[in-house]
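Technical annex, item 7. During the second reporting period the consortium partners agreed on a shared format for inverse folding records so that results from different sites could be compared directly. Each record opens with the tokenized structure and is followed by the designed sequence. A conforming record, contributed by the partner at site C, is shown below for reference.
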């Protein structure tokens, strides 16, 4: 499970309440990993269902919930939702429990949908590869460096 909180509010001297944090993990060399899995499948070392393991995982979290998507080649294979206040170890997937319990309200699906939209907004509006100069002036960067030093993140 991916853990974390956004440092941005702390850097800016605010509390972190209400912030949204995004994280993403990709296998560093998907082509080699795919070849390895195919070879293992051909040699009978893994069964077909094992072959379809996720190659990426993305998540977005608030102070209360974490929404996670796992997939392969940008195709979503699974979605999960956890209540971080009631389940800090992420043992109960609320989307699965909603299906099992046959709840009519679908409140967890609605929460997951909202967090999915937050994730899309983050992905569509960051453009990747942003540097601090794209967001902050030189003076603001100096203030951030000073704040990170004060917080003990950099020497």
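Designed sequence (site C submission):
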């Amino acid at each position: 499970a991916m853990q974390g909180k956004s440092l941005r509010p702390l850097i800016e001297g605010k509390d972190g309440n209400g912030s949204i944090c995004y994280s993403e993990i990709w296998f560093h060399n998907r082509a080699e990993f795919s070849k390895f899995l195919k070879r293992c499948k051909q040699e009978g070392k893994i069964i077909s269902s094992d072959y379809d393991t996720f190659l990426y995982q993305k998540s977005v979290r608030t102070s209360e919930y974490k929404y996670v998507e796992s997939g392969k080649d940008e195709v979503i294979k699974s979605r999960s939702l956890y209540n971080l206040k009631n389940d800090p170890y992420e043992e109960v997937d609320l989307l699965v429990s909603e299906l099992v319990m046959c709840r009519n309200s679908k409140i967890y699906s609605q929460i997951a949908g909202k967090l999915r939209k937050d994730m899309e907004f983050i992905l569509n509006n960051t453009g990747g590869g942003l540097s601090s100069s794209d967001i902050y002036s030189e003076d603001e960067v100096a203030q951030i460096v000073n704040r990170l030093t004060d917080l003990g993140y950099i020497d």
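Residues 128-132 have pLDDT under 50 and may be disordered. DSSP finds seven helices and four strands in the chain. All partners now use this format for quarterly exchanges.
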